[in-house]
Amino acid sequence: MSPKTIAFLGATGGCTNACLAHTLKAGYHAIALARTPSKLTSLLLQQDGITEEILASQLRIVRGDAMDVASIKKTILLSGSNEGGSLVDIIVSGIGGTPSLNMDMRKCLFVPTVKLDNPHITEKTASALVSALQEIYSERKLNNHDQDKPVLACISTTGLTDDNEPPDVPFLMRAMYHTLLAEPHKDKRKMEAVIDANRDLFAGTVIVRPTLLTGDGKSTAGKKKGRQKLRVGTARKPALGYTVDRADVGEWIFEEVIKTGGKRWFGEKVTLA
């Protein structure tokens, strides 16, 4: 059975915004959590095929913070409240902090590193989502019935493989990943750990690990489609590559999780390059 309503966290981000645009154009209903609804609306109207009429009829925007449990509950419940509302079918999370380039002193050398305005944002969002679902299930006295639970598709990053997994980053990029991107990757690793520890709260989880992101997430009719060249792998057999377009990541999540329900990828950490 096709999903009816999809919730989006971090929908102003390029990958998630592209996925939301595909979702709306396909006729699905969506609920998006945004700190600044006007920013989200503006970004969506820049996407090819999105109109004011589509937004008015198919999208509900919840003003709030993704690290706030109450805001998430309003987003993942169809009624926007605890009483009488059903849960959404799928949750797509693309939360991330705002990066800035800094120079850190290490062993008498200045080393460039990426810092985040909130270095724990993805971990805190995952924890808030877990708490929101736990509260909802407790209030409704739900048992472990998968049909009552949403699917989660969460955007992470390559470069987080365990020691027993093959590297998912090309050799020439590994030094950069371990130094330049150490802080954001630490946050993503903790986010993945929160999700892995609470898989029973979801009908299924799909962690998407794109490589170095390019583009702004906008997909236009005249733009050459790149998804045909997208390389897809898993943590056990990763797809190696140097970059991936945000628009292609968003389209992949739409095609493989929202349209199909995502069962093929449940429990996987999917690499995209």
Automatic annotation (TrEMBL):
Residues 10-255 form the NAD(P)-binding domain. Transmembrane segments: none annotated. GO terms for molecular function: biliverdin reductase [NAD(P)H] activity; riboflavin reductase (NADPH) activity. SUPFAM superfamilies: NAD(P)-binding Rossmann-fold domains. PROSITE patterns: PROKAR_LIPOPROTEIN. It comes from the Eukaryota. Pfam families: NAD_binding_10. PANTHER family: FLAVIN REDUCTASE (NADPH). Belongs to the avfA family. This is NAD(P)-binding domain-containing protein. It comes from Rasamsonia emersonii (strain ATCC 16479 / CBS 393.64 / IMI 116815). The lineage of its organism: Eukaryota, Fungi, Dikarya, Ascomycota, Pezizomycotina.
